[in-house]
Amino acid sequence: MSVVLAALSELHIILALVIVFLLFGGKKLPELARGIGEAMKEFKKAQREANDEHHNQPSYTPPAAEAHPQVTAGTVPQKPADPKLN
Fold first, then answer.
1. pLDDT tens per residue, range 2-38
2. 0.70 exceeded by the pTM?
3. Which range of residues forms the domain containing residue 31?
4. Residue 2 resides in a domain
């Protein structure tokens, strides 16, 4: 951003202001400036609220692993008998 501003001379800035003045006129400039100021205030407010929400969210904690019975070499898990087969 500062590179763009450094490339603009005072003449460029004055020329842009004259063009804005000619387009909007003297009566509309205060309204235009007020609208831009209110838009910037609303943008900063929304940005601040989003930042607050981001910092207030609890950090993610993965669910605890379920306890499974440990199978040893001497034991084999058995399926329950299916009553339809008998």
1. 566 567 788 988 898 888 888 888 888 888 889 989 9
2. no
3. 26-58
4. no
